[in-house]
Amino acid sequence: MAVDPDKIGVIAGSGQFPLLFIEAAKKAGRRTVLIAHRNETGDEVAAAADEVCWLKLGQLGKLLKFFHSRGVGETVFVGAITKTKIFRDILPDIKALSLWNKIDSKQDDAILRAVAGALEQEGIQVLESTCYLQHLFFPHGVLTRKKPDNNQRLDIAFGWKNARAIGALDIGQCVVVRNRSVLAVEAIDGTDATIIRGGNLAKEQAVVVKVRKPGQDFRFDLPATGIQTIETLASVRGAVLAVEAGQSLLFDPEAMIRAADEAGIIVVGVSENLDGTLDY
């Protein structure tokens, strides 16, 4: 079937990002063809799309067949996939198994780049997930009423260096620190679990730092925060959320900042200068 330029594929995980993307794409005049993952993608996302195919993680051949039958020539990856499902809730078809066996590293970027490569070999271009949503980038500066004190600024700088290091190894994008000690490092369990692990060790006043990976591919796996992040940090009496500005996504900013102010949590968008110093 010929490519329909009005259509855009949406390969969706969980969360609100897929719904926000579909709404923005429609405003831009695109028809959305959705790949929805069972036990991940919300029903409201499926209801918003023009066409939908439900599948389980690993059904790459089914995905390609659906896109080709609908004339999809461009697609995006949006929303999270629970990473632990790689080990317990995957139904790989022959196409996926063949691809999986060619991947040396089973880390996030390696898997996603391999899937993107397979799509592009089939004539389906993978676009940046933010192509219609630049307004969702995390802003620069202190966003809350409270500002970080000197000790917290030192923790932000310390956490930044360590978060960047684990990102370079494709381990995660977030660390939890207190008094220049790393209490938790994000791994396959995700940001919220990392905050809980680190926050419980800190007892209180934990500082969470979340950054992009060096060489971050904006087509997928962008860091994202929202009100759920604040609620999780508040549950362990955390003190600071520092996020790299312009390199990650912020959902429901007004509600998030309101919740942070109510909990006494500092939220700050941080930028790195050419000389390595931090600015906010």
TrEMBL record:
Residue ranges of the TM segments: none
Annotated ranges, domain LpxI N-terminal: 7-136
Gene3D superfamilies membership: 3.40.140.80, 3.40.50.20
InterPro entries attached to this UniProt entry: LpxI, LpxI_C, LpxI_C_sf, LpxI_N
Domain LpxI C-terminal: 139-268
Pfam assignment, any one: LpxI_C
Designated name of the protein: DUF1009 domain-containing protein
Organism: Desulfocapsa sulfexigens (strain DSM 10523 / SB164P1)
